[in-house]
């Protein structure tokens, strides 16, 4: 799983951010977050992340004009994957929290495009 997720992030950093469709970018983010949660085996968390990801789709499409944030997200994802591969789970958890905070801050910065 880790290598498959790493490959997707490297693809983005190698140019996919500019060339992938909104669907592809959204699906990559969904796969990353759902794969990590599924690895926990916690049915409640799995159901929750799937529900959150359904709501995120609209946000993803509306934020495509702000692709400059994606390289940092990809680097954060790779860092989390590296920590997991080294079995540094607590550090990976801390990094995931920081990543989610960074994402929430980014949403705040693009809030104006979310208005219908």
Description of the molecule:
This protein has 116 residues and is mostly helical. The chain has one domain (1-113). It contains five helices and no strands. Helix 1 packs antiparallel against helix 2, helix 2 packs antiparallel against helix 3 and helix 4 runs antiparallel to helix 5 (89-109). The termini are far apart.
What's the SSE blueprint?
Elements: H1 2-19, H2 22-40, H3 43-62, H4 70-85, H5 89-109
Helix pairs in contact: 1-2, 1-4, 2-3, 4-5
How many strands? 0
Assign a percent range to the helix content.
Answer: over 70%
Mean pLDDT: 87
Discrete helix count: 5
The string of secondary-structure elements, in order, is: HHHHH
Derived structural class: mainly alpha
Rounded to the nearest angstrom, the distance between the terminal CA atoms is 37 Å
Strand content: under 5%
Shape: globular
- Which regions are unreliable across 5 or more consecutive residues at pLDDT < 50? none
Number of domains: 1
Instruction: Indicate the radius of gyration in whole angstroms.
Output: 14 Å
Largest sheet: none
Please outline what is shown here.
With about 120 residues, this protein is mostly helical. Helix content is about 80%, strand content about 0%.
Which key terms come to mind for this protein?
Transcription regulator protein, transcription, DNA-binding, 5 helices, mainly alpha, 116 residues
């Amino acid at each position: 799983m880790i290598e498959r997720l790493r490959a997707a992030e490297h693809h983005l950093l190698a140019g996919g951010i500019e060339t992938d469709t909104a669907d592809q970018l959204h699906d990559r983010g969904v796969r990353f977050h759902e794969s990590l949660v599924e690895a926990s085996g916690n049915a409640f968390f799995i159901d929750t992340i799937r529900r959150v990801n359904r709501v995120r789709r609209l946000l993803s499409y509306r934020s495509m004009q702000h692709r400059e944030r994606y390289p940092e997200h990809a680097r954060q994802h790779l860092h989390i994957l590296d920590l997991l591969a080294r079995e540094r789970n607590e550090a990976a958890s801390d990094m995931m929290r920081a990543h989610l905070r960074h994402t929430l801050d980014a949403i705040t910065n693009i809030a104006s495009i979310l208005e219908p």
